Amino acid sequence: MGDDKQTPAPVGGQPNMFEVLAAEAERKANSGQSCFGIKYEDGVIIAGLKQKRSKIHEIDTVEKVYEISDTMCIGYSGVMADGVALVKNARYSVQNHILKFGEEPSVEKIAEDLSNVMRHYASTSGVKPFGVKMLVGGYDEEPRLFESTLKGIEGNGEYLAKAIGVYSEKIDEHFDANYKKGIAKKDAEDLAFEALAMIEDFKAEEATKSGKSFTALTADEIDFAYVTTNGFERAEKSFVATALTEAKAKRRKA
């Protein structure tokens, strides 16, 4: 499904329906809760803020990062139902590949498959496109990190660090200024929690401007996971709480 990688061209200089739907899907993805990935020497971190449907939604039952296989995981920003549907599709793609070829697919292939599915739905008449962006992280022979959108991964290539969702431009600027290729796990964790502390500051600034109440970010709202040669691992909440507190304190002193 979605093998055609060609994006329909505009007719008469006017935006076609694909472009209109793609723009709406991107708007939804960009307004979703922040998610980001960071490669380090031995693996990949995927982390982000969980997305609650309502005040009565139990946050501990929500995931932002999903295990796809022993060596791969996905984070998303945008419409929760769309993200979950694509996660299921990715898991099916992995199992189908294993049955056919006797080995797991590459991280890049799953990232491409997700983009192809998103493109297929955006270019099919009468079908709502997926309002999400996905980060696919994993370990083939080395750490890998890709962003999947309905526009494909071809133009973007692979990332050392990448953010999606709200505040993604500012977080990417933070990564661009502070990331060093081949960084150790501890340095990648520090970079990640600095980004999370920044997100809290951005939310506080918006609340002040709008006159709305603000609640400080807590470990309950954060999904933080790793993929290495040893497999997928979700960080303990106690570790997230301590590291987040330290990152906030560091920003206050800066």
Secondary structural class: alpha+beta
Quaternary class: single chain
Q: Kindly, what is the distance between the CA atoms of the first and last residues, rounded to a whole number of angstroms?
A: 50 Å
Form type: globular
Treating each run of at least 4 consecutive H or I residues as one helix, how many helices? 6
Please tell me about this protein's structure.
With 254 residues, this protein is an alpha+beta fold. It has a single domain (17-253), classed as Aminohydrolase, N-terminal nucleophile (Ntn) domain (Glutamine Phosphoribosylpyrophosphate, subunit 1, domain 1, 4-Layer Sandwich), CATH 3.60.20. The protein is built from six helices and nine strands, in the order H-E-E-E-E-H-H-E-E-E-H-H-E-E-H. The protein has helices spanning 17-30, 80-101, 107-122, 168-178, 185-210, 237-253, and strands spanning 35-40, 43-49, 65-69, 72-78, 132-139, 143-148, 161-164, 222-228, 231-234. The strands form two sheets. Strands 7-1-2-8-9 form a five-stranded antiparallel sheet. It has a four-stranded antiparallel sheet with strand order 3-4-5-6. Strand 8 and strand 9 (231-234) form a beta hairpin. It is globular.
Topology:
Blueprint: H1 17-30, E1 35-40, E2 43-49, E3 65-69, E4 72-78, H2 80-101, H3 107-122, E5 132-139, E6 143-148, E7 161-164, H4 168-178, H5 185-210, E8 222-228, E9 231-234, H6 237-253
Helix pairs in contact: 2-3, 4-5, 5-6
Give a quick set of tags describing it.
single chain, 254 residues, Glutamine Phosphoribosylpyrophosphate, subunit 1, domain 1, five-stranded antiparallel beta sheet, four-stranded antiparallel beta sheet, disordered N terminus
